[in-house]
Amino acid sequence: MSAELLNKAREGDRDAFSQLVEAHYDFIHAIAWRWCGVAGDAEDIAQEACIRMARAIRDFKGQSGLKTWLYTLTLNVVRDHQRQMARRRRDENRLASDPVFLAERETPDGAAEEWLWAAVRTLPDKQRDAVLLVHAEGLNHAAAADVLGCSEKTISWHLHDARKRLKDLLKREAV
C-alpha cells in the first residue's frame, strides 16, 4: 500500500479511499469472522468498520501501521456488536418472561393479543412508538432510536415505562 494512496485518502480523495477499502476489506472481514464466527455478523461488522474508517481516516497519524490501526478499529466494532447482541438477548429474554407479553401467547383466539395492542395504542406517544418499533416492527434499540431521533437509552427507558403501564393495565383488567 503506497503512502501516497493513504495520504490522498486522508485528504478526502474518494477514489483513494475506495482503493484503500478494496485493498484491506478481506483483512477487516477476516478479523470480524475470527472474533464473531457468524458469517452475517462478520459482514455487518466489516461494513461498519469501513464506515468508521471513512470517518476516522483523516485522524490516522501513522504512529502505528495501517493494519494495526485497522485491527484496533475492527475490534472496537466487534466489541460494540457483541455488546449490542448481549443487550438484544437480555431484552428478548426479559420480554419472553414478561407477563404482559406472555399473555399475548396464551389465548388461541387472539383476544389477549388484540387487548395488548389496543392497550399499547393508549400509551403516551413516545412509549407507544418505542413499543411498536421494537416489538411490532422488530427493530433493535439502535434502529428505533434512529427513527425517533433519540438515544438507545431513551428507547430502553420508554420500553421500561411502557411495560410498567401495561402491567398496571393488565392487573386492572384481571380484577
TrEMBL record:
Protein family according to the UniProt entry:
Belongs to the sigma-70 factor family. ECF subfamily.
Write down the superkingdom of origin.
Answer: Bacteria
Q: Where is the RNA polymerase sigma factor 70 region 4 type domain?
A: 114-166
Among InterPro entries, the record links this protein to: RNA_pol_sigma-70-like, RNA_pol_sigma-70_dom, RNA_pol_sigma70_r2, RNA_pol_sigma70_r4_t2, RNA_pol_sigma_r2, RNA_pol_sigma_r3/r4-like, WH-like_DNA-bd_sf
Q: Does the keyword DNA-binding apply?
A: yes
| Gene3D superfamilies to which the protein is assigned, alphabetical | 1.10.1740.10, Winged helix-like DNA-binding domain superfamily/Winged helix DNA-binding domain
Sorted alphabetically, which PANTHER family does this protein's record hold?
RNA POLYMERASE ECF-TYPE SIGMA FACTO, RNA POLYMERASE SIGMA FACTOR HI_1459-RELATED
What Pfam family is a match, any one? Sigma70_r4_2
NCBIfam families, A to Z:
sigma70-ECF
What's the name of the protein? RNA polymerase sigma-70 factor (ECF subfamily)
Where do transmembrane segments lie in this chain? none
| Keyword match Membrane | no
Query: Which UniProt keywords are listed?
Result: DNA-binding, Sigma factor, Transcription, Transcription regulation
Which residue spans adopt a coiled-coil conformation according to this UniProt entry? none
Which residue ranges does the record assign to the RNA polymerase sigma-70 region domain?
20-87
